Amino acid sequence: MARILIADDEESIRDIVSFYARREGHEPVAVKDGEAAVAAFSVGGFDLVILDVMMPMRNGFEVCAALRAVDDDVPIVLLSAKGDIVDKSMGFGAGADDYITKPFDPEELVLRINSCLRRHGSKAAAPSAERIVLDDLVICPKEREVSVGGVRVVLTAKEFDILNFMAQYPGAVFSRAQILDAVWGADHVGDSGVVAVFVRRLREKIEQDSSHPRHILTEWGAGYRLV
Predict the structure, then answer these.
(1) When you count CB atoms within 10 A of the terminal residue's CB, does the N or C end of the chain come out lower?
(2) Long-range CB contacts for residues 81-84, cutoff 8 Å, separation at least 24
């Protein structure tokens, strides 16, 4: 059983998500605005968070960033009526693990919730590798830390997971679908285009010039490789 924080200003959405969470054996805690979400989370004990983007007091992006400031590991899923790439980029940039566009199929939401929880459990149980050094890029899987040229770079959980996955096989080319399966899980329901969003954000953080990357290279028609 997982304890799930649900924040949405629409009562019908809170009720639907809570119903399906209970059906899966989870314990939902529902609040109606961003301030209440931050306050509830500060008490602790949540295994997953579901946030509506358009909420009063504080929107979902702001709440997501606030939660990430105190917990960089808990899975966060955003709900939004907007599905364009700019909004998704903002959501993932704030630290979200997944993004679901309204209206959504409750069964799909259940799949996403359970997938996030399984991945989180597997990550916590996985053995840590030694640190990985690729020129000026240093990755420490155990500490989940990254530095470039001796300067620490702050990554979101998903950004780190993608970089760490590719760093296990330096020089190997991975398609978007392969990265999606490795990081989000084979049962993830969604568009592999999300990988491109994360790769762009990673380049902005670890490359001296993101338009001319030295570490994460694009192999046109094939995918990406880390060198």
Answers:
(1) N
(2) 81/53, 81/54, 82/53
- List of residues 6+ apart from 205 with CB closer than 8 A: 153, 154, 155, 159
Q: What's the rounded Cα separation, in Å, for the pair 79 and 99?
A: 6
pLDDT digits (tens, 9 = 90+) for 155-188: 888 899 999 989 888 888 899 888 988 888 766 6
Q: What is the rounded CA–CA span in Å between residue 223 and residue 44?
A: 39
pLDDT band at 114 (very low <50, low <70, confident <90, very high): confident
**Tokens 């940039």 map to which residue?**
93
- Alpha-carbon distance 222 to 131, whole Å? 28
CA distance 216 to 94: 21
pTM, two decimals, is: 0.64
Q: Which residues pair with 29 in a beta bridge?
A: 5
Instruction: Using the CB atoms, write b or e for 178-192: b if 16+ within 10 Å.
Output: bbbeebbbeebebeb
Q: How far from 97 is each of 55, 127, 158, 180, 203, CA to CA, in Å?
A: 19, 22, 6, 12, 18
Beta carbons of 48 and 117 less than 8 angstroms apart: yes
* CA pair distance 68, 206, nearest whole angstrom: 20
Return the SS3 of 185: coil
Environment class of 125 (CB within 10 Å of its CB; exposed 0-12, middle 13-18, buried 19+): exposed
pLDDT digit string, tens, across residues 209-222: 999 999 999 999 88
